[in-house]
Amino acid sequence: ICELKNLFELNFGGNKFEGHLPQCLNNLTHLKVLDVSSNKLSGILPSVIANLTSLEYLALYDNRFKGRLFSFYSLANLSKFEAFQLSMETDLLQVEIENCLPTFQLKVLSLPNCNLGAIPNFLLLQFNLKYLDLSHNKLAGNFPTWLLENNTKLELLYLVNNSFSGFQLTSAQHGLLSLDISSNSFTGELPQNMDIVLPKLVYMNVSKNSFEGNIPSSIGKMQGLLATYMNMTQLWALYLHNDNFSRKIKDGLLRSTELEDLDISNNILSGHIPSWMGNFSHLHTLSMSNNHLEGNIPVQCQNLAGLYIPDISENNLSGSMISTLNLSSVACLYLQNNALGDRFVKLNTSY
């Protein structure tokens, strides 16, 4: 391969190659794309990459590299560099986050599972990012609003499974399309100005945190998540489990008739199950377990003919389940720890 001196793209990702990357890769001075991801490569990351001055895209993730620390200094002089992907499933490789003055401006940076411990300082000098993934890195502190302020073109931001605790947004509007901050330590209420700051958002995951209070009514104004004329009519999945949302379920989802998956389990929701949930004719999975819901299951739930996994366990529900739930498609049914009054249930399903 090293004899192909005019090669500008080398992609052998997704194979079972073993051993070290050859040092002779520095012969490929015209190389723009190098993808060796998802193999079984080992050893230290070769410093030879620093000599590939034409490199624009580098993917090293999902291998077995180990040894000394990987330093961004080795990439600092790659002035054409735009995309870098690296991740490790073990602690065999550490990524240094020391001060670095790069000559490049990245558009894509993916560093999940890289044992960072802190956000790399060189990101303070990046202004063209469109995709940033810093998930699974034990990062702490407040939500890094400066990443949005510095990178006005940022479209996807993933900070999953870290230890961020404060979630506040500035007043400046941003064009972010996808945001995932699930599995962190965020507390308090969701920002009330989300519709102003993030009006173009089409995907948002804030599950597995410690948010509390009401879901801001401003979310209903976010046209990126919603249809043009009717609020939330295009929403097909909503996951709000393992937070501290309280009070009654209001009618914010009234028009979300395309919902297929709804998970509001493990919260402090109270009151009755709203009758308009019977309008969710496409609903496959419904999880409302471990709340304080009470009263009867609405008879309108008979309309949920496609319901595959209903979980309404660990509540204070009462009355009859047989006459209110359509069980024709049910594969798994969870009712435990309620006050339902049925004497027996006979399920005729094809599962």
TrEMBL record:
One of its GO terms (cellular component) is plasma membrane. The keyword Repeat applies. Keywords: Leucine-rich repeat, Receptor, Repeat. Pfam families: LRR_1, LRR_8. The keyword Repeat applies. It comes from the Eukaryota. InterPro entries: Leu-rich_rpt, LRR_dom_sf, RLP_Defense_Trigger. PANTHER family: RECEPTOR-LIKE PROTEIN 1 (PTHR48062:SF63), RECEPTOR-LIKE PROTEIN 14 (PTHR48062). Belongs to the RLP family. This is Leucine-rich repeat-containing N-terminal plant-type domain-containing protein. It comes from Citrus sinensis.
